[in-house]
């Protein structure tokens, strides 16, 4: 699907208004060309991950605009939507503690990562996400990356001079 562009819409509308008359496109020589059927405009979605815009606004007020992310991942021919928030200091500390206790046991690290994600998941319910993880186990890390980013893992630290 092409991206929305106001300029493109204006051009399309002006071309249609110049060329259409009486339900058919009139040519310069007076002949009629069949009108191409237009695709009905799709209605704007009223929910994301099963949640209303009002609820998302409420979460953004509670956690901060930059601490709530609306995300999706391709699952088959669909996109699974999910909403996460950034972890609190306590949640992140608990994650680090679980990883430290893992003694390089990857199953324990994976459980710690899933627990962090689950604590930050706002929508949909965790059972929906667990079903996805069963089918696509590597998505645990991929889906948790935005949570880690909100925890500050991607912030740039620079050496400064004074």
From TrEMBL:
One Pfam family of this chain: DUF6848
Residues annotated as domain DUF6848: 79-153
Region (Disordered): 1-47
Organism: Deinococcus ruber
Comp. bias regions, Polar residues: 30-39
Descriptive protein name: DUF6848 domain-containing protein
Bias type Basic and acidic residues, positions: 1-11
């Amino acid at each position: 699907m092409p991206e929305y562009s106001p300029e493109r819409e204006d051009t399309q509308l002006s071309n249609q208004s110049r060329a259409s008359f009486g339900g058919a496109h009139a040519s310069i020589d007076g002949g009629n060309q069949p009108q191409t059927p237009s695709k009905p405009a799709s209605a704007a979605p009223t929910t994301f991950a099963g949640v209303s815009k009002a609820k998302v606004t409420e979460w953004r007020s509670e956690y901060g605009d930059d601490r709530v992310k609306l995300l999706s991942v391709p699952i088959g021919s669909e996109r699974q939507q999910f909403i996460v928030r950034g972890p609190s200091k306590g949640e992140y500390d608990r994650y680090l503690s679980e990883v430290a206790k893992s003694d390089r046991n990857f199953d324990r690290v994976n459980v710690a990562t899933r627990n962090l994600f689950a604590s930050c998941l706002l929508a949909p319910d965790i059972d929906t996400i667990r079903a996805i993880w069963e089918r696509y186990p590597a998505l645990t890390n991929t889906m948790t990356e935005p949570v880690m980013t909100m925890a500050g893992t991607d912030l740039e630290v620079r050496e400064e001079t004074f």
